[in-house]
Amino acid sequence: xEKPKEPPSDYALTGIYFFRQTIFEMIKDLKPSWRGELxxxxxxxxxxxxGLKVGYEFVSDWWKDTGRPEDILEANQLFLSDIKLSxxxxxxxxVTLDGKVSIGRGTTIPRxxxxxxxxxxxxxxxxxxxxxxxxxxxxGDGAAIF
Length: 146
Description:
The protein is of the alpha/beta class. It has helices at 22-29, 40-49, 69-81, and strands at 86-87, 90-91, 96-98, 101-103, 108-109, 114-116, 119-121, 126-127, 132-133, 137-139, 144-145.
């Protein structure tokens, strides 16, 4: 529910979402709300109506309004600060991993590269040798960094 007059609980959406390409199909069909805005909650409801999986996590350590671009960047920093170390990919020789780094399955961190966390690198990413990634960087599945 987007800004209900009488909220059914004390919980709120924090404004941090991770979507697959399917979300763009939802957005194309959205109509502006009474406020003249496209409501992400309506797109999420459509995902559920289509029988697609929608998950969530409770955030109890911090709250950040994300109404401005600089707020989104700060929320990204807060979120990435909480990531857990995970390496499901391949790390070649002569690579520097510093801080909290999560590497997805099928991703290779090539020789001579430096990754300074907090960083999340998705699955099946292609990264050029001697690359520098981070800090506070999120790279989605299948991305190429050249």
